[in-house]
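Exercise 7.
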Amino acid sequence: MRIVDTHLHLVYMDRFRYPWLADAGPLNRDWHADTYFAEAERLGVEAALHMEVDVAEEDMEAETRFVLGAHPRIVGAIAACRPESPDFPAYLERIAAIPGVKAFRRILHTSPDELSQSTMFAQNLRLLGRHNLAFDLCVRADQLPIGHDLVARCPDTQFILDHCGVPDVAGKALDPWRDDIRRLAALPNVAAKVSGIVAYAGPDWTVDDLRPFVEHIIDSFGWDRVVFGSDYPVLTLTADLTRWVTALRQIVGGASADEQARLFHRNAERLYRI
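Solution. The predicted structure, written as tokens, is:
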């Protein structure tokens, strides 16, 4: 099964500044493309989208331009942005013109809830729909209602929910996450990224710990609205890429070849226009 990884982070500390990494323990180092693909290619990863790494704001555009040439198998970039800014429309026009930009993201799961609730934030995200560009929605489980409201206010913009909505996997906190996911999935302009959950599972996680979260996401969104993401290198906090891909393949092993193809590459190619 060939794979498109929709959530690859790369870190080049000699080029860009990553303020958050100072408190990120073992993640606070370089993570280069060649190291990732040495493992990923053995697993069937044929292409990847680079996900912005919350670099210093003044480095956002340079990061996007650099990563698109960092490796031949990087086929697109999800660029950082600041939709809360009145300068966003001009920034969007400039970044959207870069060949290979497929979507945008503004980190919300570590931001105040109020950030995404302003009129300007939604107005700016509605501009993405006019450019046929998606927005990756990264919110915590307790912020899913806020995420729902944002998606509902931008009906012509495609959203992709990152990391299954950041559930507390280690705490087996399926509720109220399940109901909030169902409610979000009822909106037609949002898909879900099956990614990131191993980082919230604790170091001793098993496949059965992950299974109810993955299965609920697929059941809620359907096979046409789910995509695969590695969340490399954040996943290395509790696993490695091989362990995550192997676990997910085991969880969806009973699905048809067509359904698995939609999860692992076909939906990504459609939603991100690869």
